[in-house]
Design goal:
The complex is a heterodimer. Chain A contains five helices and four strands. By secondary structure, chain A is of the alpha+beta class. Chain A has two domains: 5-37 and 142-173, Alpha-Beta Plaits, CATH 3.30.70; 54-123. A four-stranded antiparallel sheet of chain A has the order 2-3-1-4, with helices on one face. In chain A, helix 3 (54-80) packs antiparallel against helix 4. The model of chain A has no long low-confidence stretch (mean pLDDT 89). Chain B is mostly helical. Chain B has one domain (6-447). Chain B contains 17 helices and no strands. The longest helix of chain B is centred in the N-terminal third of the chain and has 41 residues, at 85-125. The two termini of chain B are 28 Å apart. The chains are: A alpha+beta, B mainly alpha. At the A-B interface, helix 4 of A face helix 12 of B.
């Protein structure tokens, strides 16, 4: 395995980056990773990444929140300490349902939002005090970086990247991760 | 250029004819006298009793009916009438029925055109980049506004001349016995009511006339002056619209229940007309696209219309619920009667519309990919439009006909008649101009629009 070497190409514009990714992929090079200071619209499509499944999870989380709110309000307001709601002491969840709708809505949103963020962090391996993975601090400012694995093809790749509008190209020996 | 095909023309005319027959049937079978009215209701209950073949059941039905009738008269009018009140009230309700069917349908289709006009003006005022490809569709739909609003106006004039009893505050006898209405006479009087109606309709139609004119002129123009003029009048119109729309909803709908009021009613009606308008735009766009027109419209435009249908459906539900929950919770007699009559006498349409206008579009249009599929938009759109027809039905019928409602020939006829007229006017207008506003400065952006 000779491929501990990666090439880092730096770009200073997201439109240039998008067209560069397109041309690199057309030449059948494998892009390891792209680091950007902000989400670039359409980048996931040109990179050929799978559709995100987080929306399915959001729906499921929302349903869980919805159920939790019903069970919670039923326990609090009907079973454990029956309340006279709006002068209508029916002591039935269904008949008092309109009063609980705001809570049902809020719990749905709360569960969906928080669990979605937590899922996102777990899935992208982010947690507090985690060391940054991005190889170049400029990508937290205003530059974009494409990382491509090298397989004895440095020259052609250099040429291609330069043509695609890279402002800086460096070859780096990578440690760790690779086996 | 689109040509209004003979097939569609014949279709719309035949719908108008069928609808007219249905309405005529409704008017002809309305009772003329007290005896006829009571006989009609007794017949209906007699028949029900026979079907069940239980003598007890028949009596039970009658008792039920008596109870409902008592309840309604108390809730809607207060106890201000004499002994023959029940019979007279019933006669009024049955005589109102065909008028209410006519009015609901007339208002509903006028509302679609008005909602579309508001959507159009918002796009103009916001200088939206995505929508110019759809401007000619919207202009076509708003062509129905003037004839549609004038028909509503004629119905209001006829009410003012006591041809029907839709607006009980127009009846001096009722006002004389009703202190609450007496307090509102300075606003609720026939001359003022009709004057206001003319101001609303005049303002909307004037904006629509000039906006269409500038839009057509922009196609030939070499500079953007027409576009700028359109931007200015659209911004001005929106200010005028939000005031007049709100007052229109008090006048034309809320005053049918002169005791009851809701402070967010104008918004509620607005949400209903807005979502109906957007849905009509989507359905007509998909229809024309399927016929091979509208080459600049892509599935991203449909997606955006779908998002509006989804979002405004939820906005409508939010307003519906805000109105319902506060009144339900506070339980103040003069307010809560409004919902009690609807839940007791209109249970199916009242909760059915919630399923049609909220739950169905929520589940169908939630997925992003579905909003790009024409048949999903068409399916959701048809349900949304029918749902908002029922919404208007629920706003007008309970106070006009009480528990005597029925979706019969007159109601279906009214719907078909105005649907036919709507299709006729809208497609005729669409065929008068090129289907794309090619001169619009944002046309290029709209053509390339991609989400």
């Amino acid at each position: 395995m000779s491929s501990n070497q990666v090439i880092h190409a730096l770009y200073d514009d997201d439109d240039v980056l998008l067209s560069a990714v397109k041309s690199i992929r057309e030449k059948k090079y494998h892009i390891e990773e792209v680091y950007t200071p902000f989400p670039v619209h359409g980048l996931d499509k040109v990179l050929g990444l799978d559709e995100t499944r987080i929306s399915i999870m959001a729906f499921i989380y929302g349903c869980i929140g919805f159920l939790v709110s019903i069970l919670m309000m039923n326990y609090i307001m009907i079973e454990d300490w029956p309340q006279n709601i709006g002068g209508k002491p029916s002591f039935s969840y269904l008949e008092n349902m309109p009063a609980f709708v705001p809570i049902m809505f809020e719990m749905t949103v709360f569960f969906a939002a928080h669990l979605m963020v937590i899922t996102f962090y777990l899935r992208s391996k982010l947690w507090p005090f985690k060391e940054a993975e991005n190889p170049n601090p400029l990508t937290t400012d205003d530059k974009f970086l494409i990382e491509i694995e090298l397989h004895d093809n440095e020259k052609e790749l250099n040429k291609l990247l330069k043509e695609s509008g890279a402002i800086d190209i460096t070859t780096i020996e990578k440690k760790g991760d690779y086996e | 250029m689109y040509t209004f095909t003979n097939k569609l023309r014949n279709f719309s005319i035949s719908m108008m004819v069928v609808g007219f027959l249905g309405l005529a049937y409704g008017f002809l079978t309305a009772p003329d006298s007290l005896e006829e009215a009571t006989a009609m209701v007794a017949d209906a209950h007699h028949a029900e009793g026979h079907v069940d073949a239980h003598d007890d059941h028949e009596n039970e039905n009658k008792a039920d009916f008596q109870e409902a009738e008592n309840h309604h008269s108390v809730s809607a009018h207060g106890a201000e009438h004499g002994d023959d009140h029940h019979g007279e009230h019933l006669l009024n309700q049955l005589q109102n029925k065909p008028w209410a069917a006519l009015y609901v349908a007339a208002f509903f289709f006028m509302m679609i055109a008005l909602g579309t006009l508001a959507f159009y003006a918002i796009n103009r005022a916001a200088q939206a980049g995505w929508s110019p490809a759809l401007f000619r569709i919207m202009e076509g739909i708003t062509a129905y506004l003037l004839p549609g609003a004038l028909i509503v106006f004629v119905i209001l004039v006829l009410s003012g001349m006591h041809f029907n009893h839709l607006f009980i505050w127009m009846d001096p006898e009722v006002v004389a016995n009703d202190e609450l209405i007496q307090g509102k006479v300075s606003f609720l009087n026939v001359p003022g009511f009709l004057m206001r109606a003319l101001i609303y309709i005049g303002g909307w139609a004037t904006y629509r006339y000039y906006s269409r004119k500038f839009s057509l002129a922009q196609d030939q123009a070499s500079d953007g002056s027409n576009h700028k003029k359109n931007f200015r009048i659209s911004a001005g119109f929106l200010v005028f619209f939000i005031v007049t729309e709100s007052m229109m909803s008090w006048d034309w709908i809320m005053s049918i229940d002169p005791h009851w009021f809701s402070t967010l009613f104008g918004w509620y009606v607005f949400a209903s007309m807005f979502v109906s308008g957007v849905t009509a735009i989507a359905l007509i766009t998909i229809y024309l696209k399927s016929k091979g027109y509208l080459e600049k419209v892509n599935d991203s435009h449909i997606h955006d219309l779908g998002k509006f249908m989804f979002g405004i459906s939820i906005f409508w539900t939010y307003l519906w619920f805000s109105q319902f929950m506060l009144i339900w919770y506070s339980n103040i007699p003069e307010e809560v009667t409004y919902f009690i009559t609807r839940i007791e006498d209109y249970n199916l349409p009242f909760f059915g519309m919630l399923v049609m206008n909220f739950i169905f579009p929520l589940l169908i249009l939630m997925n992003s990919e579905y909003k790009r599929l024409n048949y999903f938009i068409v399916m959701a759109g048809i349900v949304i439009l029918l749902g908002h027809y029922i919404d208007v039905f629920n706003m007008i019928m309970p106070s006009a006909v009480g528990d005597q409602w029925f979706i019969g020939l007159a109601e279906i006829g009214g719907f078909l008649f105005f649907l036919g007229l709507f299709i006729f006017v809208v497609f005729k207008e669409i065929s008068k101009a090129p289907l794309h506003a090619v001169g619009d400065p944002f046309m290029g952006e709209s053509e390339r629009f991609h989400y």
